[in-house]
Each structure stands twice: as structure tokens, then as C-alpha cells.
UniProtKB/TrEMBL annotation:
Membrane topology reported for the UniProt record: Multi-pass membrane protein
Source organism of the structure: Aureobasidium namibiae CBS 147.97
Keyword Ion transport part of the UniProt annotation: no
Top-level taxonomy: Eukaryota, Fungi, Dikarya, Ascomycota, Pezizomycotina
Localisation: Membrane
InterPro entries: ABC2_TM, Plant_ABCG
Annotated protein name in UniProt: ABC-2 type transporter
Domain ABC-2 type transporter transmembrane: 36-152
Length: 223
């Protein structure tokens, strides 16, 4: 991924590439490798759910920080230590939510291929109302928003052209007269507020908790 979007610059023509890199990075890590585990009767569903969650946290965090360590600098995201670790936190939450969803689906339908086929079949036939409703419980939408706010808040991008020969700014901001784009203008274009970080993190924790609870209940009733 780092070589696909290599050394992007804070200029207008690279803004969309930054957005694409953020989305692809979060979506790519959501495709987790899944190993089937059969019941052997040695432990209760609650013990499995709790141990699976706690043991997986360290590995998911290592995956997140290793992935970010390679791609963050190659792409050219914000060169700030705090921004880097916030980026890692969002990747980590993305992985935790993805694994929790996989545990739930695998608990309901042990045949994962059938589960994927069923989800794709139903999703293709959802009407507009349900598509918008499910957007609000989609963990990836919160991860993407958090990563966007982390990247574009505080950054300034150069518009096309120059002051002497005329500027062409794709996003209007208070810096347009300087032939520059305030990163918050990009967030405004996507209707992303910069003051909802705590809310988004809280929602992510809630989504993970619900997935794990439903996974436990599914295993409990199948026992």
C-alpha cells in the first residue's frame, strides 16, 4: 500500500489520494484471516468469548502498529507523533471490531463461505432506508471518519496555480486568498465534524461489545 500512494505531497492534486489511502488502509485490514475452531466441550461459551477477545488484543495491536509503521511514512501522512499513534488506535479499533463481527457471523453460520454469500445476497437487496440505517452501525464508517479528522485537521494544502497567475482551489477556506486549502475544508466537504472523536470512540466500543455479546448468545443457544 505504501508504494501505491508513495510520498504524497500536501498539494491539492494529492488530497483525493490521501482520502483513498486512508479508506483502503482501514478496509484492507478488515479482511481478517479466520481459522475454524471446533467445540471440544472443555470450556463454556463465556470462557471462549472472553479468552478469545483478551488474547487477540495484543496480536491485533501488533498488526496495527506494524502496518502503520511501514505505510504511514511511505504515504506521507501527518509527520506528527501524536497523529501517528491516533492513526494506530483507529486501525486497532478497526481490527477489533472486524474480528468481533467475524466471531458473531461464524457463531451463527459455521460455514463461513455460506455466511459471506448470504450477507452479500441480502445486502444487494436492501432498500435505501435500511442502507442508510446500517451506515450508522457500520464500524468502518466511524474508523474512516476518525482517520480523516486525524489526518486533515491542522494540515494545509497548496492550491493549483499560484497567486501571481491565479489560483484554483477545489475546496474553499479562509486560506483561499493565500492560494492554500485548510484541511478542515476537506472535512467540511465530507460533513465530518472535528469535535466528535470521543463520541466515535464510544460508539466503536459499543459496537464491539454488542458483537461479542451476540456472539456469546449464539454460541450459548447452539451449545
Amino acid at each position: 500500500m505504501g508504494t501505491v500512494w508513495l510520498r504524497l505531497s500536501p498539494v491539492q492534486k494529492d488530497i483525493q489520494s490521501f482520502v483513498n489511502a486512508l479508506f483502503f488502509g482501514s478496509a484492507f485490514l478488515s479482511f481478517m484471516a479466520v481459522a475454524y475452531e471446533g467445540a471440544n466441550g472443555l470450556y463454556e461459551p463465556l470462557a471462549f468469548v472472553v479468552s478469545n477477545f483478551l488474547i487477540g488484543l495484543l496480536f491485533l495491536f501488533l498488526i496495527s502498529i506494524l502496518f502503520a509503521s511501514v505505510t504511514y511514512g511511505l504515504v506521507g501522512f501527518r509527520s506528527d507523533a501524536i497523529a501517528f499513534f491516533i492513526h494506530v488506535i483507529w486501525l486497532f479499533q478497526d481490527l477489533v471490531a472486524a474480528e468481533s463481527l467475524i466471531v458473531l457471523v461464524a457463531s451463527l453460520l459455521p460455514n463461513f463461505i455460506v455466511a459471506l454469500t448470504l450477507v452479500a445476497f441480502v445486502n444487494a437487496r436492501l432498500n435505501v432506508f435500511w442502507r442508510y440505517a446500517f451506515h450508522y452501525i457500520d464500524y468502518q464508517s466511524y474508523v474512516f471518519r476518525g482517520m480523516m479528522v486525524n489526518e486533515f485537521t491542522g494540515r494545509v494544502y497548496q492550491c493549483a496555480g499560484d497567486i501571481g497567475f491565479g489560483c484554483s482551489c477545489a475546496y474553499e477556506s479562509d486560506l483561499s486568498d493565500q492560494c492554500k486549502i485548510d484541511g478542515r475544508a476537506v472535512l467540511g466537504y465530507y460533513s465530518y465534524a472535528t469535535n466528535r472523536l470521543d463520541t466515535s470512540i464510544g460508539i466503536m466500543i459499543g459496537i464491539v461489545a454488542v458483537y461479542r455479546l451476540l456472539g456469546y448468545l449464539a454460541l450459548r443457544f447452539r451449545k
